[in-house]
Design goal:
The structure is a homotrimer.
Chain A (H helix, E strand, L loop, with lengths): L1 H8 L1 H31 L14 H5 L6 H29 L4 H23 L6 H24 L3
Helix pairs in contact in A: 2-4, 2-5, 4-5, 4-6, 5-6
Enzyme class (chains A, B, C): transferase
EC number (chains A, B, C): 2.5.1.18
Protein name (chains A, B, C): Microsomal glutathione S-transferase 1
């Protein structure tokens, strides 16, 4: 067990664990937001979900799409598409022995950019707010990937 | 190599590895289910996929959507949205030195809930079966995230 | 820090880190491809994204779908569905002490298959090119899952 406690005593790894947990929790919040809008706006996609609102044809009119629900879902999918690379590349980057302050700068920028992306998507804020948030997160992940491949390439 | 064998001798980590492999294999099964329904129901989304069923207009009539295929795809996306946070948070939680029986309870509940979620979605079972399955998995991940941030926060 | 440097001196783990970084970077490229086609073809899904192309009704006509954009998005989602299991199972497999040349064969096949899958999807190449690429990647992940569960099952 010695090496496990050592892993969690490594400051870069602990910082990665904290920021990752925060950004994944934020992503999980999107599921709640989708459920909230589906229930308050009575917009469903599965017949069994709106069975409580009436029988037969009466319930079927709740099987529809809604701009707000679709917007939350797009923001959720964009999170998935960007947080998955951060998770994989960030984990390996953290283990590759980077400088602590550089690593924390990467993690903070990424988490901040993704939170800002969600706000920009759901408000919605005018462009280029969302595009900017997207590219900051994207750039951070690419920067970690570059650092990793430069120092530890083994093909 | 000493520390690697140590990592895999850690019981919490071995349990995490086993349950994660099972739940990810279950998620991969959704791709096969989609392919199965697409082929048996002749429902395709890419023109090149139904080229074998005829030429030109004759093939184009297979480019359609189908309730069952869309249902499997929604179940698959829901898996992705929930298993990705489990993967990240669960890995870090496993490395943070939790109590073995508590950790295994978390992993078992999560994997059980996701398998039940798939059954509830594909059958489909009446609500609140699927909602319950979803919230058990969600709660397990949040519980691990809480434990992690409480013991190892480093921002 | 001793054990961290040991982890990155492990050749299987370094190979996993390199191939994972490459395949995740490839997946991130899909976001750029989507943005490229959205901008060059003027196909948008959010009203705020096409506000620069005109006011009111004039801008609304760019809120549409396009075959090419949808194709890139499907390829991206398929990447997510397949790279997430590779990420989780591959990481645990790398830590389970596999034979170096076997492990590298797995990683190379997977990364090659996913790159070929993207080419086959975006060109598009006639089937069964894409199906073959999909099943090679799928088989590699299942093979690692099998190896992992056989040697390290702990439930």
């Amino acid at each position: 067990m010695a090496n496990l406690s050592q892993l969690m005593e490594n400051e870069v790894f602990m910082a990665f664990a904290s920021y990752t947990t925060i950004v994944l929790s934020k992503m999980m919040f999107m599921s709640t937001a989708t459920a909230f809008y589906r229930l308050t706006r009575k917009v469903f996609v599965n017949p069994e979900d709106c069975a409580g609102f009436g029988k037969g044809e009466n319930a079927k009119r709740y099987l529809r799409t809604d701009d707000r629900v679709e917007r939350v879902r797009r923001a959720h999918l964009n999170d998935l598409e960007n947080i998955v690379p951060f998770l994989g590349i960030g984990l390996l980057y953290s283990l590759s022995g980077p400088d602590l302050s550089t690593a924390i700068l990467h993690f903070r920028l990424f988490v901040g950019a993704r939170i800002y992306h969600t706000i920009a998507y759901l408000t919605p804020l005018p462009q280029p707010n969302r595009a900017l948030a997207f590219f900051i997160g994207y750039g951070v992940t690419l920067s970690m990937a570059y650092r990793l491949l430069k120092s530890k390439l083994y093909l």
